[in-house]
Amino acid sequence: MKLNRKDILSIEDLTKEEIELVLKTAESFKEVSERDIKKVPTLRGKTIINLFYEPSTRTRTSFEIAAKRMSADAINISASSSSVVKGETLKDTAKNLEAMNPDCIVLRHSFSGAPHILAGLVKCSVINAGDGCHEHPSQALLDMLTVKEKLGRIEGLKIAIIGDILHSRVARSNIYGFTKLGAEVRAAGLPTMMPCRIEQMGCRVFYNMEDAIKDSDVIMMLRIQLERQNAALFPTVREYSKLFGLDSKKLEMAKKDVIILHPGPINRGVEISSDVADGRSSLILDQVTNGVAVRMALFYLLLGREL
Ligand code: CP
Fold first, then answer.
1. 275 Cα: distance to centroid of ligand 1 (angstroms)
2. At what angle do helices 284-303 and 137-151 cross, to 10 degrees?
3. Is residue 296 classed as helix, strand or coil in its secondary structure?
4. I need a surface site. Which of 8, 175, 215, 307 has the fewest CB within 10 A?
5. Which helix (H) or strand (E) segment is 126 a member of?
6. Residue 261 parent element (H or E)
7. What is the DSSP string of 51-119?
8. What's the CA-to-centroid distance between 61 and ligand 1, angstroms?
9. Is 177 close to ligand 1, i.e. is its CB under 6 Å away?
10. Ligand 1 mean position, distance from CA 53 (Å)
11. How far is the CA of 170 from the centre of ligand 1 (A)?
């Protein structure tokens, strides 16, 4: 099976069946990363460019590892060390990269919609690795894989997403994804950090963290995205943390077998305490592991030959 599309730009675009296909394919690729020789020849001869205009640890590394484990040639470009600093536009960068005939460009950009623009400019596949406050589709796919792996299903679960929803592309992609797979998604945060009409995305809204987490199966904590805020949205970090930070005291109000997710990077002591981040309910590092399998699946489903 292949995805019958050129690009992966958002979870909003994907059908339930396409999401399920990515998750099933990712499950089958997990064992490659557990082998002694972590490589399959599936994408030999393919060229993948990681073009990152924003900092990244997890996403960039795992796209690169995924490409290499599939035997593709992976090239990494950071805007800060490219001709972008000399004033080259995204369009010119795209046209010049296309002239070298890559098979896929993975783009992270601070501008919402940049991957859509790029996809309209190049013949090769484009994968959105996070665009502004819009979407981070591969993150949501790895989050869904992590929940499905741990709890055996997604349909019928209650997923609480807590924090700076307004600026979070992870929240938007996860609201679309988990809702499409039949979960109830709860978005919780300060009113100043909640997008207008977010209910129209299919989630419930909570302005009190305890109400959101008390019978949830999954709690996903989000970082305050200070780099995207242009106004003071909360009085002090201490007060924010008291209201919407997850510590062991608040965790006592949740179900005993609740699982904790966080896309990273975490700010210890702000949105999550160290004992919770490192505790037995936390699947934060499992998410990172699953990121490689999900990105291998995306490359395979976009670029691989039909078996
Ligand atoms: N989760 C995530 O996107 O992390 P990075 O910014 O480190 O890629």
1. 22
2. 120
3. helix
4. 307
5. strand 125-131
6. strand 259-261
7. EESS--SHHHHHHHHHHHHTT-EEEEEEGGGSGGGGT--HHHHHHHHHTT--SEEEEEESSTTHHHHHH
8. 9
9. no
10. 13
11. 10
Single out the residue of 216, 219, 212, 221 nearest to residue 262, CA to CA.
221
Amino acid identity, position 14 = L
102 lines ligand 1 (CB under 6 A): no
Closest by CA to 135, choosing from 112, 156, 117, 157, is 112
Coil, strand, or helix at residue 163? coil
* 291 in contact with ligand 1, CB cutoff 6 A: no
- Return the H-helix or E-strand segment holding 18: helix 16-29
Q: Is the CB of 47 under 6 A from ligand 1?
A: no
Q: Give, to the nearest 10 degrees, the angle between helix 58-69 and helix 137-151.
A: 80
What residue type is assigned to position 159 of the chain? Answer: I
Token output for 282: 């936390």
The pair of structure tokens assigned to 161 is 């997403």
Would you write out the chain's pLDDT as a tens digit for each of its 307 residues?
A: 789 899 999 999 999 999 999 999 999 999 999 999 999 999 999 999 999 999 999 999 999 999 999 999 999 999 988 899 999 999 999 999 999 999 999 999 999 999 999 999 999 999 999 999 999 999 999 999 999 999 999 999 999 999 999 999 999 999 999 999 999 999 999 999 999 999 999 999 999 999 999 999 999 999 987 777 766 777 788 999 999 999 999 999 999 999 999 999 999 999 999 999 999 999 999 999 999 999 999 999 999 865 4
Cβ of 131: how many Cβ atoms within 10 Å?
A: 26
